[in-house]
Specification:
Layout (H helix, E strand, L loop, with lengths): L13 E2 L24 E5 L8 H15 L3 E3 L18 H6 L4 E9 L5 E9 L4 E10 L4 H17 L8 E8 L6 E8 L6 E2 L7 E6 L5 E6 L6 E6 L5 E3 L6 E7 L5 E8 L2 E8 L5 E3 L7 E6 L5 E6 L6 E6 L6 E2 L6 E7 L5 E8 L2 E8 L6 E6 L2 E6 L5 E6 L8 E6 L5 E4 L4 E7 L5
Parallel strand pairs: 2-3, 2-4
Antiparallel strand pairs: 1-6, 4-5, 5-6, 7-8, 7-30, 8-9, 10-11, 11-12, 12-13, 14-15, 15-16, 16-17, 18-19, 19-20, 20-21, 22-23, 23-24, 24-25, 26-27, 27-28, 28-29
Helix pairs in contact: 1-3
Length: 435
């Protein structure tokens, strides 16, 4: 049975040019490489439409940009000019007065064939010029995704880097009493909307991970009381076991090219790391110790692997070459370290740290230096990177709370956001940008 079909968004994209088009560079920009970024005041008007969908699109755009921590949408009650034609040059002085350094205008209309046409323009109010403009054609049910794509376009034009709003997150949804909790594999947009279940059984599921190259996830399930790693095709719902191993297999993760799965295999009281080629189904052992080696994560170039091991007496982070050679410890702070995840940018490794009775989410450089704690609490765990390497999502269990919830935090550590879901949620894994 087909479990989930990802949105097939066929977009006709065109630049919106006008006599007000901007030169290649405008004054409005954000340097996100600074340690502390002041959010850019941006005015986002309700997109013009005949049925209210324009206001919904602009609301999603504003929410995306605000959650990034880099933009501060101006309160609409402060707007002086009422935009009646988004194709015309706005009265820039009216927007300067309210300190809107950038302005977004647009419209959403319905074509004769039923499709939506969504168009926007981004204006630099201090340079008195248009920075960019595009239009998109799609089916009405895909309006939220169009809004995310527009938010990405604005983010990229102002920061110079790719956005992360047109993405999804696979996670474990948890419902029912704590003593008999049902855990299912679910998927949602990165802002918590459009939640869909991918599994529907009483079998425990853990550690879902997205493929970097296909609409596919890998996860661990205790189906039939036997923990195994599975592959699930999101488009068709087809599922298969990644090999039949005699022991427990867990912590699966794809290689950057999507051709291998790296995982931990437990046998005789210890666990070691293996890779499996998904085409030939051949396995290669990378570690060979009497300890627990687990939670492997590839570097984005596929040349190295970070993993956790208690071979030194407690959990610490190690790195090795992709063939298993050159294994070395890189974490040396107080406490124990786990769940290392290599940044898509290749510059940092995120981790969970347990010390002083708290669980923290932090990052360090790939040689172990420059450790920074981003957030701490009763129980934080399971970081996953947005595809641009600027934001992390994780799950938190607060003291006395009924169950875990998802949160996001940026690399400054100041912009922490609750991601609301219909049920308790854990083990998030961020997708790449959708095609």
């Amino acid at each position: 049975m087909k479990i989930f079909s990802p949105i097939r968004l066929v977009l006709a994209v065109a630049a919106l040019m006008s006599v007000f088009s901007a030169p290649a560079f405008a004054r409005v920009e954000i340097n996100i490489n600074k340690g502390n970024v002041e959010p850019l005041p941006i005015a986002i008007t309700d997109f013009m439409s005949s049925d209210g969908i324009g206001a919904q699109v602009s609301a999603v755009i504003a929410a995306d940009l605000q959650r990034s921590g880099l933009f501060a949408p101006v309160n609409k009650n402060a707007f002086i000019e009422k935009i009646s034609n988004p194709d015309q040059q706005p009265r820039f002085e009216d927007w300067k007065v309210i300190n809107a350094q950038a302005l977004v205008t647009g419209r959403v209309t319905r074509e004769s064939d039923g499709r939506l046409r969504a168009e926007f323009r981004l204006w630099d109010t201090f340079a008195n010029q248009q920075m960019t403009g595009q239009q998109f054609f799609t089916q009405p049910e895909n309006w939220r995704r169009v809004a995310h794509i527009i938010a990405d376009a604005i983010y990229e034009r102002v920061t110079g880097e790719k956005g992360y709003f047109d993405t999804r997150v696979v996670f474990v949804s948890e419902s029912g009493p704590k003593t008999a909790r049902k855990r299912q594999l679910s998927i949602m947009d990165q802002d918590g909307f459009n939640v869909r279940n991918l599994t529907n059984s009483n079998d425990i599921v853990l550690t879902p991970r997205f493929s970097p190259s296909r609409q596919e996830v890998t996860y661990m399930s205790f189906e039939g009381q036997q923990p195994r790693v599975y592959l699930l095709q999101l488009e068709t719902g087809q599922r298969e076991v990644v090999g039949n191993f005699p022991g427990m297999t867990f912590s699966p993760r794809f290689s950057p090219d999507g051709q291998k799965v790296i995982m931990s295999l437990q046998q005789d009281g210890n666990a070691n790391i293996y890779t499996m080629d998904l085409r030939s189904r051949t396995t290669t052992r990378l570690t060979n110790t009497s300890a627990i080696d687990t939670a492997p994560s590839y570097s984005p170039d596929g040349q190295r692997v970070a993993f956790e091991s208690d071979r030194g007496g407690r959990q610490q982070i190690y790195v090795m070459n992709a063939d298993g050679s050159g294994q070395q410890r890189i974490s040396f702070g107080d406490g124990s370290y786990s769940t290392p995840v290599w940044s898509p940018r290749g510059d940092l490794i995120a981790f969970t740290k347990q010390s002083g009775g708290k669980f923290s989410i932090g990052v360090m450089k790939t040689d172990g230096s420059g450790e920074r704690i981003l957030t701490s609490g009763f129980h934080n765990e399971g970081p996953t990177w947005a595809p641009n390497g600027r934001v992390l999502m994780f799950f938190r269990q607060n003291a006395g709370a009924g169950g875990p919830q998802l949160y996001s935090i940026d690399l400054t550590g100041y912009n922490e956001q609750l991601i609301k879901t219909p049920t308790f949620a854990s083990d998030p894994a961020w997708s790449p940008l959708l095609d």
